Structure formats: structure tokens, C-alpha cells
């Protein structure tokens, strides 16, 4: 664990803005009215490979809806909290979201029911050539791709950022990592609590227990994950608003820096917030959740049960993992 001063001294350099946006000169297909971005693959209007009964997306273009992101198609290769927070938000705004997970890594059940609200989830082994082709079809039909795995871990699947730009230049690609790629931990794994410890946030929230021993603390509710997730959604919307494809980068480390720079951190005693929650019935019991921070037509989007398929077979949500 480090103090903020130790972390800043160790960082390779001061990063740029919290959300690093790089627009391209290629229109997002959704807004390419002249048709110059038409697909070169054999797919129907729902992004479905020819001859297949059902495509990767729920609806064809032009589905009647007044939601802000109606017609926008999103593919998510993200897990746990940050990326799914982004896709939950985009789905609440009307986007058609497809989340793809490896079959061997089911999400925690409660987390899945919350963060995958309104999202279609599939379990695909992308090392399988047939599933890799399905992914290519989905990306060809999509407007936005979110990735959230350790830098370099998707390279063997042809999903490094440079490869995505070459193969799918029409996409808005938002990339999440734990650490700044140019920093000393750039290629390492990481998650919210580790980043809080490394950047001095855990030290900031530290306090002495009843025995007088100092203990590290943490921001509540995995705040770096949630903040970064909303940042990913904001980055996708910002690039879509330009009408062009492009790339955006978000990291938990840069998110921590933004919060530290803003000096909005509370004391440990003030950090335990109690947000208003709602409940919704699910096949697994009643779900208590924090509602969406936005309103559409004056109302908050309700929680929606995820649509789940496991390697192409529709079924119940993945079971909760136990330690």
C-alpha cells in the first residue's frame, strides 16, 4: 500500500484527461446515411449471418423507440463491475447490448442480475473458430465495442486495439484497463481495491480500530469501478455524438487520479453512504438495486431481467460462484 505522494512520485508521467478520446475519420455506420459504411460481410439487417435463424442483436435497425440510443448496437467484452456498469447505462438509454463471456467464468449471480439489466448475455468460447466467426459477425453489425481485459490478453483472439481498427474501422472502441498503459504497472492485472491501495486512496481512508491499530480503508461501493464504468459510457456517447468512429481509453488508475485531483474525497466517517434503492422481481428472488442515475421521459428506466444464453443455448442465469 502506498500514500498518494509515493504513488505520484512512482508514476511514469502525468496522464492526459480522464477520458482519452481519439475520433477517426470514418463515419459510425449508424449515421452513415449515404451507405458508404455498408457491411462487407454476409449479414442481414439484424446482424445475423445469412441462413441463421437469429442474429446476435435483438432487433433490426429502425425499431421504433424514442430512447436516446435507440438503434445503437453495443458488443461488450467486459466483466465484473466497471464494464457492465457502462453497458447497463447504455441499455437504459435504449442501446441494444450483447455481452460475451467465456463459458468457464460465470459472473456472480447478484452482480449479473443487477449490472446486466436489459442486456443480452451469451457464453461463447472465442477460441472456437465458429464462435470467433460469430463474434466477427456481431462486431461487423455493431456500432460500439467495449473491452475490459488486461492489456494484451485479447491479442491472440485478434482483438488488440490496432487489429480492431484494421478489421472493424466503423466501430467506436472503448478500452478499459486497471492501470495506465504507459505507467510502471501498465501490463499488469488489477481491480478496484488494488488500485485504491496503490494510489493512496486506501491510505487516505485509513483509521485506527478499537485497539488503536491503524487499518487501511477504501472508497465505498467499488467507486473506481462505477466511476470508470460511467466514464466508458460517456466516452462512447461522446464519440457517437461526433458521428465518427474512434477509440477511447479509460483506466481505474486515471479515474483514481481524477478523484484525487478533484479533492472530493470525504473522510472515512463520511464515506458510508446510503443511496435510495428499488426492488424488482427476478427468477431468483427479489433484487434490490440502485436505480439508473438518468431519467427517460421523466422516469427512471426499470430493472430488466438479462437475456442469457450459454454457448448458444437459452437457459437460466449463470450460477453464483462460491469461494
From TrEMBL:
Residues 1-21, 35-54, 297-323 are annotated as: Disordered. Coiled coil: none annotated. The keyword Transferase applies. Keywords: Transferase. The keyword ATP-binding does not apply. GO terms for molecular function: transferase activity. Residues 1-11 have a biased composition (Basic and acidic residues). SUPFAM superfamilies: CoA-transferase family III (CaiB/BaiF). It holds the Pfam family CoA_transf_3. Gene3D superfamilies: Crotonobetainyl-coa:carnitine coa-transferase, domain 1. This is CoA-transferase family III.
